[in-house]
Design brief:
Elements lengths: L1 E5 L6 E7 L5 E7 L5 E7 L9 E8 L12 E7 L4 E10 L4
Antiparallel strand pairs: 1-2, 2-3, 3-7, 4-6, 5-7
């Protein structure tokens, strides 16, 4: 399991990532602060998406909804104080150019 600490604004957000058996990546974002975090950037390289691979889908595991993302990552738009968000990243080999 990989851990990363971010500090958006006056918050401390911890990211935890773990590779799943089928190659997907589970990511948890934990807000340790006493205030809400907004627009927390989640960079795919920082959570362990290997080079030569690309993310093909992101799903919010609590809400069950697809999450908009780009090649670099996505943003957790709001994370309440002491709250956790969980995501599943589907990963595939990048198309060669």
């Amino acid at each position: 399991m990989q851990t990363l600490h971010l500090q958006p604004g006056n918050c401390t957000v911890e990211l935890y990532a773990k590779r799943l058996e089928n190659g997907a990546l589970a990511v948890a974002a934990l807000n340790r602060a006493d205030v809400s975090a907004t627009s927390v950037p989640l960079n795919f390289l920082n959570v362990g998406v290997p080079g030569g691979m690309s993310v093909t889908g992101v799903r919010d595991l609590w809400g069950g909804e697809a999450v908009a993302f780009d090649r670099a990552g996505f943003r957790v738009m709001r994370l309440a104080s002491h709250d956790t968000a969980m995501f599943r990243l589907e990963i595939a080999a990048s198309a060669s150019t």
